[in-house]
């Protein structure tokens, strides 16, 4: 039986047994290459689920939808390792109770569909721990290396050109599972902390605020990068920040549901004396 | 015999228009994204695209535009108005859906207050549209009673030749004729046949949709929640749309000194209708998506007798979760049967 068929059966069993009220997965999209998020609530609909190498989007962001999860209303969700890391970060930041989520895990190493054993975040601890030690597979690594070698002026010019395209549609924010703030700083308008204008300064403000806010939290699922309608290579910023956090604090976001947020926790014996 | 503009003469045309003081604009690639932008030579133009990522509207209604500078002192209040940069422009290589989008928005920007930012640019721009010989799965102009060779909103329509060596020239307006007079000697009379325009299949019945939308019973239909369940509430569809026209006015700076700007806004955002009290009449994403569809296919046609959609398909093409107008209207077409 194909992995897709196995997982449809599993989704059907979970819904039939009442273990979950909803399955969040992938369905066929507008074109043959596209997949779209679907929400299955009836065992009869599980045949609509699709699972293949086009199922790239991280669906964990839907879990923080207001009123979705409860002890009585658990939800199953198709997640790749990045999605499971996102779930851990959301749990560590008290945004959801991971016991209310059933993971249907899969991975796409080199585009090949592979099933992952387990259903609760704790079942994947070893897998996620190993990811921390591995070299991340980044689309655009050559460009990243090129940017690293640039002078600060050249680098500024590079990002200036990229950010000049930004239209502030906030697709990056909306697609991001970590951007769950009820009211984003850019939407706080009394006073207006960040310019809403998408001129160069406003675009720098937005993209840099977001990069800092995601540092140590981003799981590099790529949702923002794929969502961007003007193709700003946002993954490169997130990769850079993740590497900085790893090098500086030995922190890899989302390895466990109790992991302390690296930039939002402090220790009395912190080596930086200015903190106390 | 028809007038033909051969491809190898295009660069001379660009040069001619530029030397006459016109800004020449067309579809180009900019940092891995396609957009209409100014060019210095024809070689910069990317005329093979089905459609640019970004729509033509931003040439007339930019994403952020300064309106006035203010300075308040104890003695007086000073304001300096900004007006859009003036000067003639020729937009070469627009698509029919984009050009139509401009014509759709003209009555909106002029029905009571005449938006001088929009109309100054409209009056100074010549739109040269190239009929489409290819389309993609997202194109839907024919569902909106337009076509790949619609003349709506265009000053000149070019039909690509079968041999791909140029275009048949159809002059549609005086403004178009005027701009092409200056390059008359670069055109040739010829009988080269035009290539067939692409066939874009009809995807939904817009009239049936309009009837369904007008029925008040459907306002609270469960359909809205179901169709928009996956919407993540970004503004990508509205900002890429050639006809979406909502904006917000923001004072940037301090209480005593700053710049008042007109910035794009989107009905997809929760903040769009948020009241000062904290109450939001469109508190859910489904209510916001319903508003977008109602506005385009019910309220706007009620006021201006045209759908606020020209069928470019960008909403679906770029949607992070594969939503869009096509799917919604296809589903409404089914419901209205």
Automatic annotation (TrEMBL), chain A:
Database matches in Gene3D superfamilies: Alpha-helical ferredoxin
Gene Ontology MF terms: iron-sulfur cluster binding; metal ion binding
Superkingdom per UniProt: Bacteria
Start and end residues of each 4Fe-4S ferredoxin-type domain: 209-239
Keywords attached to this entry: Iron, Iron-sulfur, Metal-binding
InterPro entries: 4Fe4S_Fe-S-bd, 4Fe4S_Fe_S_CS, Helical_ferredxn
Keyword tRNA-binding in record: no
Protein name per the record: 4Fe-4S ferredoxin, iron-sulfur binding
Species for this entry: Chlorobium ferrooxidans DSM 13031
Record lineage: Bacteria, Pseudomonadati, Chlorobiota, Chlorobiia, Chlorobiales
Automatic annotation (TrEMBL), chain B:
Top-rank taxon, per record: Bacteria
Keywords assigned by UniProt, alphabetized: Iron, Iron-sulfur, Metal-binding
UniProt feature coiled coil, ranges: none
A GO term, aspect molecular function: metal ion binding
Ranges for domain 4Fe-4S ferredoxin-type: 221-252, 300-331
Protein name: 4Fe-4S ferredoxin, iron-sulfur binding
